[in-house]
Amino acid sequence: MTDLSPEEAARHREKMAKRKAVQDAEVAEKTLEKGLLIIHTGAGKGKSTAAFGLALRILGHGGRVGVVQFIKGAWHSAERDALTSFGDRVEWHSMGEGFTWETQDKARDIAACARAWEKARELLADPSIGLVILDELNIALRYDYLPLEAVVAALRQRRPDLHVVVTGRNAKPELIEAADLVTEMTLVKHHFKTGVKAQKGIEF
Amino acid sequence: MTDLSPEEAARHREKMAKRKAVQDAEVAEKTLEKGLLIIHTGAGKGKSTAAFGLALRILGHGGRVGVVQFIKGAWHSAERDALTSFGDRVEWHSMGEGFTWETQDKARDIAACARAWEKARELLADPSIGLVILDELNIALRYDYLPLEAVVAALRQRRPDLHVVVTGRNAKPELIEAADLVTEMTLVKHHFKTGVKAQKGIEF
């Protein structure tokens, strides 16, 4: 594959030079700087995981990160263990009590979501924090466990340079409307279908 | 929203108890343990970011992680800075020389991919590593800069308990066929469209 004729190499060079000009022009058009409201939704894997990957990027730039988990409780902690090695640059609050089919108590689930949202508002108001991750907030909104309008309004009114990531399936259209960047994680193939169980380091 | 009648609370409890029984039965069916071949593909954001999030999970469990970047070079380093704070538990190799339209030199791109694949084979053979991230390998395969059959064969022949994540758009069907878990990141909405530029901590 490495035997390129001089003509082929020249054609490639010319094509790539044109492509670079297009890329450079596109980058130059974009001048706004702002904190982004980012949504990771869809039935696929990677919604929370990509949010924690973004946390790494902020930490790599020397920033601080706040995390509120709306559904998951203390059992889900490998990322937390890793991120808390960054000391007080990560503020992590697992405010959930597990999935709805684990608690089987709707009033308790609603109360847990209200407490989680209270903590989220604290982090959103903290000027030392550069990224707030609201993990599984979409689930709380989907079940109407939190008032959608108030949540969307608070997110829209965030500090102009604050990044926020909201994760969970079935993001509400009103939240997508307010967002800057929305990615849907789509399941193409899953090992559970072939009897493989949840793997340490991957699922938990 | 918190005023539940006793009847409503009981109906919820019963519904969730049934759902838990279904969930438990599904979990019990899955008994295989194995290292997974995971693909993050699609035009949306979060492919590499979710891979680095998985690295956190492995690190949280006390494991070691190897990373080879096939396209990106040294300029892309915030996650790297953060992950290398885990010391020798992360082995990071940025073997790329930038995008094809930056180098404008096909022979050089092919040589860089060959060196990156050599390094990947070393990491795949290292018994101390629990997760290998082959970042943007899909791009190298898409442009036929590496021999697809040999790459897929090496990934299939990995150690049974080794997890591998391959990222990049346009994953080859042969690779998807060999994979355990494939997620497509789909772009729903992007801030570049409204003139917002790449943001520190988010895009780089």
TrEMBL record, chains A, B:
InterPro entries hit by this protein: CblAdoTrfase_CobA (IPR003724), Co_AT_N_dom (IPR025826), P-loop_NTPase (IPR027417)
GO MF assignments: ATP binding; corrinoid adenosyltransferase activity
Keywords, ordered alphabetically: ATP-binding, Cobalamin biosynthesis, Cytoplasm, Nucleotide-binding, Porphyrin biosynthesis, Transferase
Enzyme Commission number(s): 2.5.1.17
EC class (word): transferase
Entry GO CC: cytoplasm
Pfam families xrefs: Co_AT_N, CobA_CobO_BtuR
One annotated GO biological process: porphyrin-containing compound biosynthetic process
Subcellular localization(s) per the UniProt record: Cytoplasm
Chief location bin: cytoplasm
Domain Cob(I)alamin adenosyltransferase N-terminal intervals: 5-27
Protein's recorded name: Corrinoid adenosyltransferase
